[in-house]
Model the fold of this input.
Amino acid sequence: MAENSRPLIRLATNAEDAASGLLVYRDSLLSYATRITAIITELYAVSAVLRELDNAQIDPGHRPGWYRIENDVDLIVLSIQYTLEDVFNMFRRARGRSQKTVWDDLEHRMSQDETVDFLERLQWYSAFLEDTFAVLEGHANGRLELLRRRIDVLLDTQEISHKSGLRESIPERCKMTRVFDD
Done:
């Protein structure tokens, strides 16, 4: 199956693209450089676990257990999509505006309008994905339930923000397409 038809790979690639785009901001907004570097690091961590999950999803040995994590993957994928769309929209808005202004707008939107700042949500995503992968591997973790509740609330807030017109167009909540045949 082609990589571009695999949703987790596409999302991982988008996370990497967002990280690459943020390098310009890190290099030009020196007062934010440490924070942006941490965000870039988390984006790559999220991408790495998404790729691991994709490999597991197409691995015949993991297919029978995929049902245990499918709803969690759907939950996290949509929240990550919203977050990455915000970043790509920031890149588009940067044309003709200062990088500091669009960066501050993004940070404000995430921390104030959606109540979870950029770095913290990426840390949640990374931990959630790692714990989800552990469940697939047969290693339950008590932290997953807490993270699931946090991300569910974040996603609800992201959807409200989207529906109220605070963001540009993002696809409605949808299930991730399965990449294997049963």
